Amino acid sequence: DMWWSAGSGFGGGDGDPSVTFELGAVYTNTSFHGWNYKEAPPNLTSRGVNSVSVEFGSTLALGGTIAGITNFAQADGLDTYAGENFSGFAPFNAQFIRFDINSNYGDGSTFYGLSEVQFNGDLVPEPSSLALLALGGIGLLGRRRRATA
Questions:
Q1: pLDDT tens sequence across 66-125
Q2: Which three-class secondary structure state does DSSP give residue 143?
Q3: Is 6 helix (H, G, I), strand (E, B) or coil?
């Protein structure tokens, strides 16, 4: 599913556009892949996100920003468009990731859009899950010792 803001073409504008992704749990995020807004000719890729700040956190209060990511490349509008990979930043733990959008690629109706985003990382186990895992491991060690005695 694509995302785009309510631009001035629909009876208003989005003066402070952003999109927040809720990952469902806390993940250690190592990279993400984004496909900027692409709509077939008459080439409306000008609605794609240009200047952006990527923020993250374990709650909606966020609290961190990924340094070094300030712009997304403009989509070419073709069916072969492969998107853009973002990596090389320090891994971070987050359940919420927000793209705080500062500009698009010049669309006069103030639309801002993304075609798709994919986050990559590993689930961070909850403390209670770690405790159960440790207890299970201790139980297995005790059973092994009894079996060899």
A1: 999 999 999 988 889 999 999 999 999 999 999 999 999 988 778 899 999 999 999 998
A2: helix
A3: coil
